[in-house]
Amino acid sequence: MNDGAPVAVTSTPVARVGLYRWRICAMLLAATTINYIDRQVLGVLAPFLQTEIGWNEIEYGYIVTAFQAAYAIGLLCSGAIIDRLGTRIGYAIAISVWSLAAMSHSLATTVVGFAAARFMLGLGEAGNFPAAIKTVAEWFPRNERAFATGIFNSGSNIGAIVAPLMVPIVATAFGWQAAFLVTGALSALWLVAWLWIYHAPEDQPKLSSAELAYIRSDPPEPSVRVPWSRILRHRQAWAFVAAKFITDPVWWFFLFWLPKFLHAEYGLTLLGLGLPLIVIFVMADVGSILGGWIAGRFIKLGWSVNRARKTAMAICACMVVPIVFAAKAENLWVAVVLIGLATAGHQGWSANVFTLTSDMFPRRAVASVVGIGGFAGAVGGMMIATFTGFLLETTGSYVPVFLVAGSAYLVALVVVHLLAPHLAPAQLDEAKHV
Question: What keywords tag this UniProt record (predicted)?
Answer without folding.
Answer: Membrane, Transmembrane, Transmembrane helix
